[in-house]
């Protein structure tokens, strides 16, 4: 499977998790793709640079470069939208007023702690809103392919990259499986590939188990 | 009361070593004309407080390339290759803050509050050296407020008294920066007479603003172009 397809499969699966009426913040990368799979759901997108009710990208002739998303790309706004300053925007985020944050990540540990801001072996000079979103959103879903380009699993027993905060995420949607983080650690809730849990455990490098006796749902 | 001045009069309000609060996210809401005026001065050793250091050779990026910036306090500098190199060589100090912490620190600075406790960044590298305390069973770190010598901001419209309204996401950090500088200079796309702006929609009241200048930039397609 092409990596581009994997990214879209992950985004589509995350869209299924979102519910009518929710306020959602989509991070850059795979999370941004989620917007294209929302269908008729009434999900309101927040952008941390000061917009609630973000719409799709405009046609080239309608670009207004004052109006951008957190990735600095031109966007539009929908009926019912509002603009606010950065302090108010992060009050929404830190104060628990965002229902779901969908974030990319470099690593997730078995308890759901993530590392998604500091690229290894490079000077760490950017954090943006990553730590605020991890800390403050009511629910955090992370989106990433399960394996890095070098083959290393992004689901790890212990983070080797720098943590984004002590808050544990709720769900990790990858191209191989959907993982939920419980008090007993990580559990597989759904396979996205035709693969057994033993095979997946071997690829990841440690033993994985299903959440309770969940029925296997294949999403080929 | 008329706070409108010519951009050429701006230089006297800045001096070497100043802490300059700068509005903007990417280039949206960045006071590009005021920054261009700074390029014409010989002031140096500036500390810049801004989300990022401009973009694509515009805004604060130009000021940085001139070697005028000693220290940058903000949330996102990784895309600026030259800044990363300067930092590695020890030529640029960087104080990295989460974006929400940056916004709140400046808001506090302008509101007479010394600092605040936040859960953001607890347990991470960015909490190193910061006081931690538990409040209602949760871990928080202390972040000190930020104030500046001069705040340079961008708004859509000003009246001659300095009341400001903004345009879409170009608002971003500007309303906070407007409160936290000893001198506050607003660059705007349009200057109107007092009484024209609807008081219900004024975002920054004139009390915060010292000087207003007309922007020399226009939006053309997906660029800000110097056009006046």
TrEMBL record, chain A:
Annotated PROSITE patterns: COA_TRANSF_2
UniProt entry tagged with the keyword Lipid metabolism: no
InterPro entries to which the protein is assigned, alphabetical: 3-oxoacid_CoA-transf_B (IPR012791), CoA_trans_fam_I (IPR004165), CoA_transf_AS (IPR004164), NagB/RpiA_transferase-like (IPR037171)
Gene3D superfamilies according to UniProt: Glutaconate Coenzyme A-transferase
Pfam family, one: CoA_trans
Keywords, comma-separated and alphabetical: Transferase
Keyword Transferase: yes
Similarity field: Belongs to the 3-oxoacid CoA-transferase subunit B family.
Protein name: 3-oxoacid CoA-transferase subunit B
Organism taxonomic ancestry: Bacteria, Bacillati, Bacillota, Bacilli, Bacillales
TrEMBL record, chain B:
UniProt xrefs under Pfam families: CoA_trans (PF01144)
SMART domains tied to this protein: CoA_trans
InterPro entries assigned to the protein according to its UniProt record, in alphabetical order: 3-oxoacid_CoA-transf_A, CoA_trans_fam_I, NagB/RpiA_transferase-like
Keyword terms: Transferase
GO molecular function: transferase activity
NCBIfam families: pcaI_scoA_fam
Alphabetized PANTHER family for the sequence: KETOACID-COENZYME A TRANSFERASE, SUCCINYL-COA:3-KETOACID COENZYME A TRANSFERASE SUBUNIT B-RELATED
Name of this chain's protein: CoA transferase subunit A
């Amino acid at each position: 499977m092409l990596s581009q397809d994997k990214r879209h499969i992950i985004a589509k699966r995350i869209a299924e998790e979102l519910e009518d009426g929710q306020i959602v913040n989509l991070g850059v990368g795979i999370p941004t793709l989620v917007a294209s799979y929302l269908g008729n759901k009434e999900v309101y997108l927040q952008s941390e640079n000061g917009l609630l009710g973000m719409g799709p990208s405009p046609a080239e002739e309608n670009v207004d470069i004052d109006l951008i998303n957190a990735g600095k790309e031109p966007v539009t706004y929908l009926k019912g939208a509002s603009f606010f300053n950065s302090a108010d925007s992060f009050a929404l985020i830190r104060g628990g007023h965002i229902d779901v944050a969908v974030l990319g990540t470099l690593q997730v540990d078995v308890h759901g702690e993530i590392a998604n801001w500091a690229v290894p072996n490079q000077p760490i000079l950017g954090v943006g809103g990553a730590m605020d979103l991890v800390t403050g959103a009511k629910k955090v879903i992370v989106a990433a392919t399960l394996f890095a380009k070098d083959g290393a699993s992004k689901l790890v027993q212990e983070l080797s990259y720098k943590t984004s905060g002590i808050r544990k995420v709720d769900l990790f949607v990858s191209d191989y499986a959907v993982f939920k983080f419980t008090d007993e650690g990580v559990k597989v809730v759904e396979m996205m590939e035709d693969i057994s849990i033993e095979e997946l455990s071997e690829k990841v490098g440690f033993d994985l188990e299903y959440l309770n006796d969940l029925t296997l749902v294949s999403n080929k | 009361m008329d706070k409108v001045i010519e951009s050429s009069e701006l230089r006297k309000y800045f001096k070497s070593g100043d802490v300059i609060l700068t509005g903007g996210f990417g280039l949206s809401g960045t006071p590009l004309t005021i920054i261009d005026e700074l390029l014409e001065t010989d002031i140096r050793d500036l500390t810049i407080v801004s989300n990022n250091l401009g973009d694509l050779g515009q805004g604060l990026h130009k000021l940085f390339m001139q070697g005028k910036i000693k220290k940058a306090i903000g949330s996102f500098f990784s895309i600026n290759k030259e800044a990363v190199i300067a930092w590695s060589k020890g030529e640029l100090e960087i104080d990295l803050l989460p974006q929400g912490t940056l916004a709140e620190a400046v808001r506090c600075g302008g509101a007479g509050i010394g600092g605040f406790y936040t859960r953001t960044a607890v347990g991470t590298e960015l909490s190193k050296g910061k006081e931690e305390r538990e409040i209602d069973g949760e871990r928080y770190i202390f972040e000190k407020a930020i104030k500046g010598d001069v705040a340079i901001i961008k708004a859509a419209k000003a009246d001659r008294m300095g009341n400001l309204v903004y345009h879409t996401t170009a608002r971003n950090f500007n309303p906070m920066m407007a409160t936290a500088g000893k001198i506050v200079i607003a660059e705007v796309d349009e200057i109107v007479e007092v009484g024209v702006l609807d008081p219900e929609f004024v975002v920054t009241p004139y009390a915060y603003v010292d000087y207003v200048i007309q922007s020399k930039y226009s939006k053309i397609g997906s660029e800000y172009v110097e056009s006046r």
